[in-house]
Structures are given as C-alpha cells and as structure tokens.
Amino acid sequence: MAEVLSGKISEARDAEVLIERPDGSRVTGVVNIRPLKNQGGEVTGAINCAYDITERKLAEQRQQFLMNELAHRGKNLLAVIQSIAFLSLSGTRPLAEARDVLIQRLHALARSQSALITEGFEGAPWPRSSDWSSKASPTVSRLLVRCDAEPQGSTDLRASYA
Question: Is 74 helix (H, G, I), strand (E, B) or coil?
Fold first, then answer.
C-alpha cells in the first residue's frame, strides 16, 4: 500500500504479497489497491481489498514437493531396473535362462514396490548391515537386493542380498 500512496506505482491489481501480522505470523494474500485522489490529483488515501490465499499456497508447495519426490523416485526405480537388467543379462548364462532370471527379478521388484505402497513405506523389513554378504560392498550402487515374496499379492516380503 505504501508504494501506491507514495506514487511509486499507480495501483496494485491481484498482487501476491506476504503479510506479517502484529503477532509475527505471516499469511499470503492477494491485494488490489487503488489510490484515492483529491480534485488536484494528489493522493489522499487508498482503497484496498485483500484476501488470504495462504492455504492455497501451502497446497501448491506441497503438490510441487510431491511431484519432485515422484520424479526422484521414478528415476531411482529406473536406475534399479537398469542394474537388474545389466546383472541378469551379463555373464555366461544362456539367453533363455538370463531372460527368465531378468523376468523373475522384475517380478520381485514389482512385488516389493506393491509391498512398500501397501505398508506405507514403513512396514517392509530391511536387512541389518550384519546380514550383508562379505562379497558385496554395502553401498547403494553395488547392492543387489533379491526380494522373495509369496505368489499373487502376499505382502510377506523378505529382502536378502545376493
């Protein structure tokens, strides 16, 4: 409002502003401000209208956070699939056997994703570091996790390192 009253700007139309209340709390609002002028054209006051859009802005921020998280998890899942494909198809296995191994591992990955979604990303067990194979480095890029689950929808998931 000070900018309109000082003449720095002629008016404000649908401007998003952060408003600090006397108690220190902050809200986001949309404001419309028009100056009141006397017959000589001097600004003598202003008419303003504001409405609170704090909840909408918080919802937009949350949505953006979730979209970024989804993109991140999608990229991670693609990296896991790439590693599974590379490890399944490398070596001296005959192609038919390697294909079967790849399909089994992809099915296990799908079951693990279903279990994570069903259990809210908190219920699926994860092995302790003492369970890691001495052959494998415990870094994410080098771990191959084999997930064994009962067939057709069971969420009794056991994860082990192979």
Answer: helix
